[in-house]
Specification:
Layout: H1 2-15, H2 20-46, E1 48-52, E2 55-58, E3 62-69, E4 76-80, H3 96-124, H4 129-160, H5 172-210
Antiparallel strand pairs: 1-2, 2-3, 3-4
Helix pairs in contact: 2-3, 2-5, 3-4, 4-5
Length: about 210
Amino acid sequence: MTAIKIRVGADPREKSTPLFLDLFCRGLIILCTFLSVILSSIAVCDGHWLLDGRRMWGLWYFCSLEEHQGSVLGSQSFKASSNCTRHLEEAGVDGLGVGLAACRSVITLAVVSAIFGLELLVMSQASEGRDSSQRWSLGAWLVLLAGLMAGGGVTTFVVLLGASATLFGFTLTFWGQFTATFLFFLNGMAAWHIQHIEPLLLSGHHDKLLK
């Protein structure tokens, strides 16, 4: 009877022993997801994604640029005029307003999904057992869903403005959103895979302890 008590008391200690590699990977996934959310939020709020000559295309509005003569060595610079508008028909483009509205809506929802996914990933580390596993799995799916929606939004933006788009015309905020989209995919897939790899790691760890 005493031996049974000792064995029952020893099992929870072994199961609760965390692996350094597991903790490191989960912490890295959470950190990268946090940075991706910040990067995507900045890109969406700024919205200046494409520069086409003297026209600036954004998620929220369209602006025309005015050329100004610089005072140093006759340099030239461009400055956004004050007549920015959300009515793209005024810019001579028909049917683009609906597409950009759908684009910014999808990307905004992607950021929201990533925020909730990040919250669940963090909360899973503060709990144990089945609740922790369920929260981690749901958070991983939400981050992966954010990657899918963000990828769809970026692709829609490029397709809508493909005639005016050039590789060097895209701004830093666009490439920031592109990077955030890639990280959403990467972190979501990593979080999903580590949830399925963990039982194998723990079984191997328990076998070493028994030996």
